[in-house]
Prior knowledge:
Number of helices: 14
Strand order of the largest sheet: 3-2-1-4-7-9-8-10-11
Helix content: 25-40%
Distance between the termini: 91 Å
Oligomer: single chain
Strand content: 15-25%
Largest sheet: 9 strands, mixed
Structural class: alpha/beta
Amino acid sequence: MSDRPAAPDHDGEQAARPLATFDALLTPTGADLLAAAAAAHADGTELRAGSRLRAAGHPPDLVAAAFAQAELRARAAAKFSQAERMFFTRAGLEQASSERAAAHRAARFAGLGRLADLCTGIGGDLLALAAEHPVLAVDRDPLHLRMAVHNAHALRGGGREGGSGGVEALAADVRDVSLTGVDGVFVDPARRGGERRMSAGAGEPPLAWCFGLTEWVEAVAVKAAPGLPVELVPPGWEIEFVADRRGLKESVLFSPALATASRRATVLLGPGDRSVPGTTGPRVVTLTGEPDPVGDDRDHGRPGGGHSGGGGPVPLPVRPPGEYLFDPNPAVTRAGLVGTLGRLVGGWQIDPRIAFLGADRPLATPFARTLRVEAEMAFDVRRVAAAVREAGIGALDVRRRGLAGDVDAIRRRLMPARRHLVPGGRTMTVVMTRVRDEPWALLCTDVTQADRADQADRADAADRAGWADPPDRAAGARGGPARD
């Protein structure tokens, strides 16, 4: 044995330092610092409070860690109902599944026994999985794993590292872990390499390795980026796209043993969403079907894509815009279920390559925003701006699909001068799109309950008069192309 002292293990010291800080935050002193940091963050007095705590003799790095947690917990409140009891890192919070998305996904594993949560991170999915199953949690980042176990224990009464309780934690590369005795696997591959986000479809471990897990366990779910190229997914796997209200968040891939549909669009509704009768609190709604037929290259979030073969759904008819316009949720467009939605609402496409749907009735649906078309015209910025100014509005929104251009710059050009705005007036949405491959503008307003009641009265009157459908307005009544 050499008499020289061993070289210092700088890597080990670097890895141990965050763990030591995390342990210090779990002490009574750490809890006091976290409480003080949370109060200062809420009041906007972080600088003064930080100086006071350091002057009181608290280690600067521990004070900084407490304030970092206060900021992360405030941000995490959008994902977790008890974020104030959890611990996070910036990268871990960014990739973590929201509480509602995780609970929705965990239901797929109902009836199975022990599960493996691979690439656990800070435990967003672990919380939901451990509520009903014993779980093997694996991550090669020891700090994330410690946080995940703490979060599971604090919120669900889960286990602690080493296997006591419902969670067994293992710090390791997921590719080196035995899945013996595991009935189902959830894996959330890292989508960042250091500070850089990986391209859509890339991950660590790679998707191909994740799909190969079915050689050992039949029931596998893989979380991926919302921009995932669907052609990477093997036949027989279900592809689900998940949106939180109108924000597309993630895709999830289910092995044949867990698949219940070819494609699925899931929307996490906001509190008080009126698109579903009886909704009083946050809910989850889902739309399933076969993907739309693949056509030419289409706009972002457009219908189509995937590996559906012959015998798929028949394309929707293509007609000029109707009295109402449905703007599908991004989860619907990415799932290629615009046709499925169109058949549900009795709509049609206004262009074969555009996901907007025309309709004559404003049916309520959680899978699209419903707009009333007030006017339409060939797209010309000056002409559209004049029409917007004459409409007497209070606010302006711009939606673009199928046309190039900077939305913010166009909105500034269309926005009436302040003197032309009506205080408290209605919001107008200018939809920039294509109709029969021509640049087109639709000037729309939000559908109200009064609109739906009026439409229902008109439908009743049509039924009493013996019409099969309410009579169409005269062709081109709003300056648009004539109906077929």
